[in-house]
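Reply to thread "Modeling small-molecule complexes from scratch"

Following up on the discussion above, here's a worked example others can learn from. I took a protein sequence and the SMILES for molybdenum atom and predicted the complex. Inputs first:
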Amino acid sequence: MRLIHRQSELILPSEITPREVVEERRDFIRKLALGSIASAGLLEMAGRRAFAQSIGGQGTHLAASANTNYVVMDKKTAYKDATTYNNYYEFGTDKSEPAQTAGSLKTRPWTISIEGLVKKPLVLDLDSLMKLAPMEERIYRLRCVEGWSMVIPWIGFSLSNLIKKVEPTGSAKFIEFTSLADKKQMPGLQSGVLEWPYVEGLRLDEALHPLALLTFGMYGEVLPNQNGAPVRVVLPWKYGFKSAKAIVKIRFTSEQPRTAWNQAAPREYGFYSNVNPEVDHPRWSQSSERRIGEDSFFAKKRKTLMFNGYPEVASLYSGMDLKKYF
Ligand SMILES: Nc1nc2c(c(=O)[nH]1)N[C@H]1C(S)=C(S)[C@@H](COP(=O)(O)O)O[C@H]1N2
Ligand SMILES: [Mo]
């Protein structure tokens, strides 16, 4: 009976299943039908191999020590899913496009400019930036505003290390992240879905929260281009779009910065965009989510957690009406 269950699960078309995985599964079914996979034991083994979900790719190794204070116990998303199902509009609006078109992005040499209301503005090359603090591995949940989530082992260090280095002035209240916008390298810039460059921002106290991760790698390796190489932020208590990729500029300001999604659709995407199951998107509920990899017909949706399950950030918003400041 288990077999039947699996079979019906396997042949269901799924918008989010990468083609290779579908093909691998088809092959598995074919072998089953041919009887080349016989006993239950073998079946289990073959199944496990076909659905193996936690190993990295073949990218450049990036050393890091596990930070056990930041570990989500949920099963990690398969490397393959995390690197082929991406939102990265500079490389196209289709989830599969970034994996196909971001490969040629030149991520070295890379400089990042830290400017605005700071005592010590800096222009850093990637290597100097990476040496600012020891690399940590942290397993975070990432929840996209579209209603899906992943669990990813990121590598980086708290953004606060960089912020302290440049010494913001007393009037700095916000921080703005600007992503690379290079028409020659990024085919998606031809489209008018967003105003380029992609810009995101935080209040300075949010950016100083230890959870805010300046990120250089994932799954033990440097970031694949489609995931934001060579440097991005990961803000796990906020919807995924706040976590800007391929950052070239960080600016400190006294006024709330304009941000790409807020500008494109202010009613739908607020500046804060904290994960909040009680505040629906105008066009859909935010109370539950689909975990990538659990996308079979039989899989239950998961309940979305307040601040995506990071209650330690709540004090940043005490006294604020989170329906108004969504
Ligand atoms: N520069 C840039 N950063 C971006 C995006 C983008 O389109 N451009 N998409 C965001 C969205 S909507 C999400 S959900 C996450 C996805 O990150 P991932 O592909 O590494 O899972 O990246 C965010 N960062
Ligand atoms: Mo997203």
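What I'd highlight from this example: The chain has nine helices and 13 strands. Residues 1-23, 25-39, 45-54 have pLDDT under 50 and may be disordered. Questions welcome below.
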